[in-house]
Design brief:
Layout (H helix, E strand, L loop, with lengths): L7 H18 L12 H8 L3 H13 L3 E4 L3 E4 L21 E2 L3 H11 L5 E2 L12 H18 L10 H13 L9 E5 H13 L5 E6 L3 H9 L3 E8 L3 E2 L1 H10 L4 E4 L13 H13 L4 E4 L24 E6 L10 E5 L4 H11 L5 H13 L2 H26 L5 E2 L7 E5 L6 H10 L2 E2 L1 E2 L12 E5 L6 H18 L1
Parallel strand pairs: 4-15, 6-7, 6-9, 9-10, 10-11
Antiparallel strand pairs: 1-2, 3-7, 5-12, 7-8, 11-12, 13-14, 14-17, 16-17
């Protein structure tokens, strides 16, 4: 920090630094938010620009703000005040359960369509971040191309150029894949359903994380299977000792996991644990269905590894899509099905016959020509900033005792409220007030997470979002009262 002579100027810059510092500590200014420029602060506080520079230098030395080249000054992310517990009180039962969550999920998704509702409960990212104009241009061009060449590229495994681009993308991220393993699907949901159908039968037991993404439970429910929930650490993923105990005592047909930025907890499973999980399942010849739909939305410096990285036996069926990273309008996903690829390809043909070819052609053209990586970097910066803002706001506005997850990627936050709060009652009151949330009941087979909710933070933070979160905190506090 620059040396300053004692006197009036010293008092002025210290006063300004204290004013801004107090606003940060009180939560008026949130992590990731931009503070006024030096010129604007000089005009507003009627101080010289030199005085403002000294004040900002002091705030930087205190770790409260940071300078970003060509962007200005921003509130720095603080060390996490609260860590999500390991949910020991909600340790799931090792007894397989019938699954019946589809009606609740359908009701919740319908409420999201309400006009002007704040979409905290939405499973979809903010579409304003997608390069939809460019995608639409490629759609139009693909339509003309398809009129010339016909519709044979609809048939499984899918459009050869799109498959090539997907394989190239994995190679750029450090994973060499066999393009002959890739089957194009109608989104990741179809990929998950096809993979589960390929490896298990009605009545079989499937191991899942707890809490788990409800699309996994849907697939199990749809096929008349049962789920056994495995204790899951909120920052490291599935408890492998608990999984091993279950495997020793009952027949497990498959294991369904989200190792990267799991929905709803947001964790990234450590590489060593991914390797150990693949090895454990390989020893028992149990296939793993890996939902990696958020793999491009990481906040760290490097792309995360996948379970597929450590698979030498063809037992990992890797599922992903472009719906969370590029466009949700056309629902293009894929499965890399290992030793089960021919079975998945056949099931794809029997179940839905084709995946529309025009969106496949359009996305392949975008990947080849239009700067996918640049688009992803913008999304990652936005989501990382939004995550910090949402976490800080929840801890500020919600009742004492509330704890939150620490997402390493993606765009959802898991909130554990005091035990006296029921998330279904909170959901109903929130909907009546024009706010949607994801009640914890959707993420398990029983009522294990009745005091938990999932929040979507992909939408740009503004006054309406902040007011809705504040109101949601008041509704939760009223339940305690």
């Amino acid at each position: 920090m620059p040396r300053i002579k004692k006197g009036a100027r010293l008092n002025l810059y210290e006063k300004l630094a204290k004013t801004i510092g107090d606003q940060i500590r009180q939560g008026v200014l949130l992590p990731g938010e931009k503070i006024p420029s030096i010129r604007r602060a000089s005009q507003h506080h009627k101080m010289s620009m030199t005085t403002v520079v000294h004040a900002y230098s002091q705030l930087e030395s205190q770790g409260l703000i940071e300078s970003r080249p060509q962007s200005g000054y921003f509130v720095r992310a603080r060390a996490e005040r609260t860590a999500m517990p390991a949910l020991r009180a909600n340790k799931p039962s090792p007894v397989p359960s019938q699954v019946d969550v589809s009606r609740l999920v359908l009701s919740t998704l319908r409420s999201i369509r309400s006009h002007n509702a704040i979409p905290f409960g939405s499973p979809y990212p903010d579409p304003s971040l997608f390069p939809q104009r460019k995608i639409n241009q490629h759609i139009q061009a693909a339509g003309r191309q398809e009129a010339l060449w016909g519709l044979m590229n609809d048939l499984p495994p899918g459009n050869p150029e799109l498959i090539r681009q997907i394989a190239r993308r994995y190679l750029q991220n450090g994973l060499a894949v066999d393009p002959n393993e890739i089957v194009i699907t109608v989104g990741a949901t179809e990929a998950i359903n096809l993979c589960l159908q390929a490896v298990a039968n009605p009545g079989d037991t499937i191991a899942v994380e707890s809490p788990t993404y409800y699309a996994m439970l849907h697939a199990i429910e749809r096929m008349g299977m049962r789920a056994v929930e495995i204790a899951t650490h909120p920052r490291e993923g599935m408890d492998l000792d608990a999984l091993a105990d279950v495997i020793r005592t009952q027949r497990i047909a498959a294991c369904m996991v989200m190792p990267n930025f799991q929905n709803p907890l947001g964790f990234q499973m450590p590489d060593a644990k991914k390797r150990d999980l693949v090895a454990l399942l390989a020893r028992h010849d149990i296939p793993a269905i890996e939902n990696d739909v958020y793999h491009e939305l990481y906040y760290g410096d490097a792309h995360p590894s996948a379970l597929k990285t450590y698979d030498t036996n063809g037992l990992v069926l890797h599922c992903a899509s472009f719906s969370k990273s590029l466009t949700a309008a056309y629902r293009i996903g894929w499965a890399m099905a290992g030793r089960y690829v021919s079975r998945v390809e056949k099931l794809k043909f029997l179940n839905t016959l084709t995946t529309p070819s025009i969106p496949q052609l359009a996305i392949a053209a975008y990947l080849q020509n239009d700067g996918y990586e640049l688009h992803l970097r913008r999304m990652r910066r936005r989501y990382a900033q939004q995550a910090r803002i949402m976490r800080a706001a929840v801890l500020r506005f919600f009742p004492r005792g509330t704890q939150v997850s620490q997402p390493a990627g993606g765009y959802v936050l898991w909130v554990e409220l005091p035990e006296a709060i029921d998330s279904m009652r909170l959901y109903q009151s929130a909907v009546a007030s024009g706010i949607t949330i994801g009640p914890g009941y959707m993420f398990a087979t029983g009522k294990r997470y009745q005091n938990c909710i999932r929040l979507n933070y992909s939408y740009l933070w503004n006054r309406d979002i902040e007011a809705a979160l504040m109101l949601l905190g008041k509704i939760a506090a009223a339940q305690l009262a």
